[in-house]
Amino acid sequence: MADLKPVTLRVAPILGEPVLAAAPARQSVPFRGGGFAPRRLRFVPLVTFLLVLALWWVVTHYGWVSDLSLPKPGEVFAALVAMVKDGSLAVNFMASIRRLALGWALGASFGVVIGLTIGLFSLARSSALPLVSALFPIPKIALLPLFVLWLGIGEVSKVATIAFGVFSPMVIATFGGVDNVDRGLIRMAQSFGVPRWTILTRIILPGALPALLSGARISTSIAIILLTAAEMIGAQHGLGAMVLAAGNLMQTDQLLAGVVVLSGLGFTLSQIIGWAERRFLHWR
Amino acid sequence: MRFNFIAGLALAMLPAFVTPASAADKVNVGVLRFVSSGGLFLAQERGYFKDAGLDVNFKYFQAAQPIAVAIASGDLDFGATAITAGTYNLAGKGVLKIIASQGAERKGYDGTTVLASNTAFQRGVTGFDKLAGTSVAVTQVGSSQHYMFGQIAEAEHLDLAKNNIKPLQGIASMVAAIKTSQVDVTLLPPQFAQPLVKSGDAHYLGLFSQIADYQYGALFGSVKMVANNKDLVKRFVTAYQHGCSDYAKAFLQKDASGKPVVNDDTKAAAALIAKYVFTSLPPDVATDKIIHSAVFVDASGKINLADIERQIQWYKSLKLVNPDVDAKAFVDQEFTK
Amino acid sequence: MDLMAQSITHAYGGMVILQDVSLHVESGQIMAVLGPSGCGKSTLLRILGGLEKPDSGGVFTTGVAEAATLNPLTYVFQDFALVPWLSVYGNIELALRHHGLSRADRDARIEGVLTRVNLREFAKALPKQLSGGMRQRAAIARALAVSPAILLMDEPLSALDAQTRALLMEDLKALWQQSGFSAVYVTHNLSEAVQLGHKIAVLSRRPGRLRELVSIDMPLAARRDDSPELLAIRDHIWHLIRDEAAMADREMVQNG
After folding, report:
1. Using the 8-state DSSP alphabet, how is residue C128 labeled?
2. Distance (Å, whole) CA A64 – CA A70
3. pLDDT 10s digit of each residue in chain B, 337 long?
4. Number of CB pairs < 8 Å for A and B?
5. What are the percentages of helix, strand and coil residues in chain B, rounded to 5?
């Protein structure tokens, strides 16, 4: 302690900053922060998409990948245009959209109701939750023959397949969302004597909405995946039936055109949910 | 001394070099476990392939399409299975050849059976002429049942567009659908149709072969093999033809009253084929089943090009086969001459 | 309206939190409840307002509340408990809507309380847009909107920074001057207790028992941090609780 020299401060004439007299060589402190904070970059999605397209074009155009394995982007586009022109795309699209909308709405509303009861009542949690957990991993495609036996080969079995696939993830999303609603808010509402129904509609449901929307994001994708499975059985029209038939007929250009439409549909639905998140979850 | 030693060594090694060259050519052949591939199974069991210097290794598949794809991709050298619209599209891309015939519908022989559901039958769907506007269960769009129904519709002057074609992906669901009257009509192989008619679960409307002959099965070869190894292909096809002729002798002979002849030859051939088709059944039961479900296969193994062209024409009219597909480009009759 | 707790005893999973606590909150007075962390202050408050059932003992009120009182026992929470997807207006309205008031009545009440806490122009703001102090003022406005007979305040200032705390303390005093509400004010902060409490109930560490009930006769308006009487009372209470606070602190560390 005793041999520590007192530090003399001197005012630097130009910058006016205090500078340590006889300071040793300066070393800048290396930057160690940053990262872990992904942002949305505006044109990157488009550029990525174009790059993938370009890669596809190059490998098929120069014959690096055979025509049999992967048709050229131009052929797929031509198949798409042909489907638009002869009206078959519209017919198939409408048939599928109906099944998707019905199946998703049914599965999601049942899922939300069951998820809410599981989230709110001990008896439901103990009885229904293990059941739902057991139902979730069942490959719905494997149950298709049973669906056909129970519900026939008409629209009902197709809608049911989609609804069944949507149901479990929505149940799990909903009760998870209900579990995550701040108990303090519920106690607060109770302390003001707010009726149970109002607590449900104004506290629990809006509080579970983030989880519901992310559940919707997953379940719409599952619905589209199951659409093809649902349309395996006795579907004359539909995007899934079209893709299946194109595969069976080895019309790979039409197959990929159908896949493009399906993934475009998935992308659009995900955009809609993203919009809903920004619109309804602005309070976050 | 030293020289002799090396010479001796060389002599000792000689057989090691020679043996592979003289050993049988290995070929991979894709098949379904169906009676229609009986010619192949007989050729294998009776050593016709071996005699031709071929070591045939069967690869078993669950559906026709993957066999065609595996030949196209070079995983198989040959394959025997049904021809679908998908196969024609694949062949049209120049990736596989049709080199011989397999199963066929032929008048006078058992084959694909047209069934009506009980409710449809009560409603008046009692014959081929009454099929207008019915719903029809098929495996897939562009499958052989689809084609056969189209041929019936043409023969009976029906508007196919008014029929509701329901692709159900598999025979099992077609059986279930006809049993429960969820479709009006379906077309099934005889071994599935007969029990349904017997048990009263469906009504017999007729055999497709009443309408026309139909070459629904073929022997395929990979393009590489057909182009580069004609000798091997020739040996393979000749052995196969020998098997087909055995098959025809065993199963397709008729007595004076038109009934199929069942003799010792039939039983012997059936026992051999049964080993491939019904692997889990006791041999005598399996043999009996083979005798009763034998389908028509041309004894010569020759492909009916005119029929193939007619099929492609029909598929093209429904846009199920691409317009640039030409049978002459991929049907190679050279090996069955 | 008076609020009385009689011999409250409560345990969580075999661990006794409160033992034989009796309190009497008189109308128009603020009862500060002071104790070290983990002494069961918040549990006591939840029991007082009927959010939790005590294992034994009971809570009673005497007298009737005013006609305007919609929710006699009303909480103010430490973390404000503002519903994040409702505006300040919506948060207050949530507490009012089931009382069958006319719309005009409701809006008048909301405007009145927002004026009292100086948040009139923030009626449409969402909680995330407000500072900590404003959030707690919004929560207090919500509590006042139902014209409570007794406010149950659970460390309402402890989530705020020191400056905001001081400001809000002034606000609370001013509010009491205006309306003379009764309150139970739970805190672990000695200074807050002597600033606001007409009586201070000092709890021991777990299991929480009533150690002493200190009355301060000095009017709230006259209380200043440096007034000698208050310093004397602070000193007195500090001696009561310091050993326990130290022990409670060690206990927390051991348990953690």
Report:
1. G
2. 10
3. 444 544 444 444 444 444 444 578 899 999 999 899 999 999 999 999 999 999 999 999 988 888 999 999 889 999 999 899 999 999 998 889 999 999 999 998 988 999 999 999 999 999 999 999 999 999 988 999 999 999 999 999 999 999 999 998 888 889 989 998 999 999 998 888 999 999 999 999 999 999 999 999 999 999 999 999 999 999 999 999 999 999 999 999 998 888 889 999 999 999 999 999 998 889 999 999 899 888 999 999 999 999 999 999 999 999 999 999 999 999 999 999 8
4. 77
5. 50, 20, 30
User: Which residues, other chains included, contact C240 with Cβ-Cβ below 8 Å and sequence gap of 6+?
Assistant: C202, C211, C212
- Burial class from Cβ neighbours inside 10 Å (0-12, 13-18, 19+) for residue C221 reads exposed
Contact, B38 vs B294, CB < 8 A? yes
According to the CATH classification, is domain B20-106+215-336 in 3.40.190.10? yes
pLDDT for res A14: 56
Question: How many other C-beta atoms are found inside a 10 Å radius of the C-beta of residue B249?
Answer: 16
Q: What is the DSSP letter of C76?
A: E
ipTM above 0.85, yes or no: yes
Domains: count for chain C: 1
Half-sphere exposure of C206 (CA within 13 A, CB side): 18
Query: At C77, which CATH number?
Result: 3.40.50.300
What's phi and psi for A195, nearest 5 deg? -65, 155
| β-pair partners for B310 | none
Distance CA B66, CA A129 (A): 41
- B-C interface (Cβ pairs under 8 Å ≥ 3): no
Nearest neighbour of A185 by CB, restricted to C49, C83, C98: C83
Q: Cα–Cα distance between C72 and C94 in angstroms, integer?
A: 16
Which of C12, C27, C18 lies closest to C198 in space, CA to CA?
C27
| CA distance linking residue C116 with residue A97, whole number of Å | 55
For chain A, list the contacting chains (3+ Cβ pairs, <8 Å).
Answer: B, C
Please name the residues between 48 and 67 in chain A that touch chain B, using a CB distance below 8 Å.
Answer: 67
Superfamily of structural domain B113-212 = Periplasmic binding protein-like II (3.40.190.10)
- Taken in order of first residue, the domains within chain A and their CATH numbers are 72-280 (1.10.3720.10)
**Cα separation values, C153 from B160, B259, C74, Å:** 80, 101, 8
Name the burial class of residue B210, with classes exposed (0-12), middle (13-18) and buried (19+) by CB atoms within 10 angstroms of its CB.
Answer: middle
**Residue B20: both structure tokens together:** 């592979």
Contact C75 A203 (CB under 8 A): no
Q: What is the pLDDT of residues C160-201, one digit of tens each?
A: 888 888 888 988 898 898 888 899 999 988 999 999 999 999
Distance CA A77, CA C81 (A): 56
Q: What pLDDT was estimated at residue A45? A: 86
- A96-154 pLDDT, tens digit per residue, is 999 999 999 999 999 999 999 999 999 999 999 899 989 888 888 777 777 877 888 88
* Helix count and strand count (H, E) for chain B: 15, 13
Residue C53 CA to residue C46 CA, distance in Å, equals 8
Exposure of B1 by Cβ count < 10 A (0-12 exposed, 13-18 middle, 19+ buried)?
exposed
The answer to whether residue A142 neighbours chain B at the CB level (below 8 Å) is no
Question: Would an 8 Å CB–CB cutoff place A89 in contact with chain B?
Answer: no
C-alpha to C-alpha distance for C197 and B270, rounded to whole angstroms: 104
Q: What token pair was written down for B310?
A: 């007619």
